[in-house]
Amino acid sequence: MANGFDAVVSQDHFSACLDLWSSAEPVGFEGIFFSEHHFGSGYSPAPNLLIAGVAQRTKTLRLGVMGMVAPYHSPWQLIEEIGMLDHLTGGRLDIGTSAGIPHEMEKVGLGVDEARARNDELIEILDKALANPVISHHGRFWSFDDLQLTPRCIQQPSPPKWVTVISVASARKAARRGARISTGFHPQSKVKEIFDAYRDEAAKVGLSVGPEQLGLRRRVTILDNDRGADDILANQRAISRQRLLIDPRVDSPGRPAILDSPNASSFTIGDEEFLAGTPESLAEQIIDQCCEIGAGHFLISFDRTSTISQLKDWYFRFGEGSIPRLRRAEV
Questions:
Q1: Which helix (H) or strand (E) holds 126?
Q2: pLDDT of 128 higher than 80
Q3: CA nearest 241: which of 264, 220, 259, 257?
Q4: Which among 66, 99, 100 is positioned nearest to 299, based on CA atoms?
Q5: Could you tell me the pLDDT band of residue 331, with boundaries at 50, 70 and 90?
Q6: pTM (2 d.p.)
Q7: What is the pLDDT of residues 230-289, one digit of tens each?
Q8: What stretch of H or E contains 95?
Q9: CA distances, 223 to each of 151, 185, 274, 302, 313 (Å)
């Protein structure tokens, strides 16, 4: 151990995770989204490297990041990485972007307003580059002429674009650029409001959208039986709400969201955020939630306290008991 870090433990962790993620393909999962986080106990500061690793072990699994934190990156680097990853995955890449998490950005002096402005400008450049082989741009943060960004994506005109959103305003912005959206945390009523705003904005700009453009993310625990699920869910809600109070956007009964910017969006943690049960009962819960709001994609975040071996077992059980039911369902 050196400064609390053990290289062998870290190496073993990465190896075990790569094995775990690769096991998702044969049991029926359609894709994996990674996340980008910094300065904590996570092991995902450069999730595009994880995509490259898993791509070599799989053939059909779609791979992406939900999302790459745009304000941390230069646009040309991010865009050329996207092109490379679409080649390395054989055209299985999904592009996901995010404006970032305030308490992480604060550690490097990046405020919410500047992060939002950087995100918006980078997304503008990204969309230009996906549509054109040579681009020029003159903005607040970046300025260049006749920039050729290579390689071009295999998927033309673009891999599917995703945006993580927690607000109506962000959903409308995503609809205007033709990006899919994913959301979580919120109770069903708020998710429906966000999705309805997305559909409304898409109609205004002449885009036809359906369940395929909408993803719901929830936290899932697989049980041997449904007895005791209520107690497990209550405990998970309490722990998660307490842990997430570090995020100033969280609005809870005991503490309103602490926002220092009019451009920051708050969110609540609804009871529906957590699902627990057997694979069969989970399938029914997922179908009910997705049908209620019109989501065609369900993004699972399995209980984070689980061990790698337990997660591998859950992948198998979900693939065997839930996925066939989900495939038969109609939203």
A1: helix 112-131
A2: yes
A3: 257
A4: 66
A5: confident
A6: 0.89
A7: 998 888 888 777 776 666 665 555 545 544 444 456 667 889 999 999 999 999 999 999
A8: strand 93-98
A9: 45, 22, 13, 12, 11
Please state, in angstroms and rounded to a whole number, the distance separating the CA atoms of residues 82 and 181.
Answer: 19
| CATH topology classification for 1-164 | TIM Barrel (3.20.20)
Inter-residue contact 199 to 172 (CB < 8 Å):
no
Report whether 29 contacts 7 (CB < 8 A). no
**What backbone torsions phi and psi does residue 145 show, to the nearest 5 degrees?**
-130, 140
Residue ranges covered by each domain of the chain: 1-164, 212-331
**Whether 246 contacts 235, CB under 8 Å:** no
Residue 323 contacts residue 284 (beta carbons within 8 Å): no
How far CA 132 is from CA of 126, 158, 291, in Å, comes to 10, 11, 37
pLDDT for position 102: 86
Residue found under tokens 């993004």: 299
Cα–Cα distance measured from residue 15 to residue 20, given in angstroms and rounded to the nearest whole number: 9
What stretch of H or E contains 144? strand 143-148
Q: Does residue 136 contact residue 235 with C-beta atoms inside 8 Å?
A: no
User: Distance between CA 160 and CA 64 in Å, rounded?
Assistant: 10
- Cβ atoms within 10 Å of 190's Cβ, excluding its own: 19
Q: Which long-range contacts (CB under 8 A, 24 or more apart) does 154-160 make?
A: 154/86, 154/87, 154/90, 154/91, 155/86, 155/91, 155/93, 157/130, 157/131, 158/95, 158/130, 158/131, 159/82, 159/86, 159/91, 159/93, 159/94, 159/95, 160/94, 160/95
pLDDT score at 256: 53
Give the pair of three-digit tokens for residue 161. Answer: 């674009």
